[in-house]
Amino acid sequence: VQLVESGGGSVQAGGSLRLSCSASGTTNSGYCMAWFRQGPENAREGVAQIEADGSAVYADSVKGRFTISRDNAKNTLYLQASNLKPEDTGMYYCAARTFGCSTSESLYTYWGQGTQVTVS
Question: Residue 34: which residues within 8 A CB-CB, separation 6 or more?
């Protein structure tokens, strides 16, 4: 499975971005898909995860501001990030695993290269 993120960029605080993650190599319809991020001085952390059935879990820091979704027909994962804050700055990674979702990055098999989000 190959994952390719896009949609990052530089925005002012309060702005929005929509990140996308395109999956290829196999269907991702049965996979857990997730977004992680890593700030300049932070360890990588889970942002949101979405099960194959569409149920989602969010980190407390992004609840009410970010929305994760998936389009299985297009093999694409999305993250709508709104009301962005400077502390949301970081590299955002798409990840997938064949079993149920987890907040632990070590349990994810497949990773993209990341897309940079900078909020000023």
Answer: 46, 47, 48, 49, 50, 68, 94, 95, 96, 97, 101, 108
Quote the tokens at residue 97: 């695993």
pLDDT tens, the chain, 120 aa long: 899 999 999 999 999 999 999 998 866 667 899 999 999 888 999 999 999 889 999 999 999 999 999 998 899 999 999 999 999 999 999 999 988 899 899 999 999 999 999 999
Q: What is the DSSP letter of 115?
A: E
Q: Which of 34, 18, 28 is nearest to 82 (CA)?
A: 18
Rounded to whole angstroms, the Cα distance separating 105 from 103 reads: 6
Contact indicator for 78, 20 with CB cutoff of 8 Å: yes
Beta strands in 15-73 (DSSP E): 17-24, 32-38, 45-50, 56-58, 66-71
Q: How far, rounded to the nearest angstrom, does the alpha carbon of residue 104 sit from its chain's CA centroid?
A: 14
